[in-house]
Amino acid sequence: MHSIAPHVLLAKKYQHIKNMSKKYQVLSPDGFAISHMHPYYTSLKKAKEALAQWVQSYAHQGYYSQTCYNGYKREISLAELPDYCEIIAL
Is 38 a domain residue? Predict the structure, then answer.
């Protein structure tokens, strides 16, 4: 029977805790969280799902309107919108 070294077991335990505490935030092209109800998500998968739902919330409009620093408004197509957003680990 093979025994696992105590430091390996400890590392696995802390890796599990580290993974549990990881949070993700989805930022719009304007740099704001896409949801005030859910300022962060507990997995990357959930963050990506939230981003997809958020993009679809603009389907009736057909685009996302971004106000740039100089007051210029840019219309971002829904197909390109996820590329302008950012998912960050907290």
Answer: yes
Domain-embedded: residue 11: no
62, two tokens: 């057909």
Confidence (pTM): 0.72
Residue 88: per-residue pLDDT: 96
b/e burial code for range 7-45 (CB count within 10 A of at least 16 → b)? eeeeeeeeeeeeeeeeebbbebbeeeebeeeeebbeeee
pLDDT band, very low/low/confident/very high, at 9 (cuts 50, 70, 90): very low
Domain count, the chain: 1
Beta strands, E only, the chain: 24-27, 63-67, 73-77, 86-89
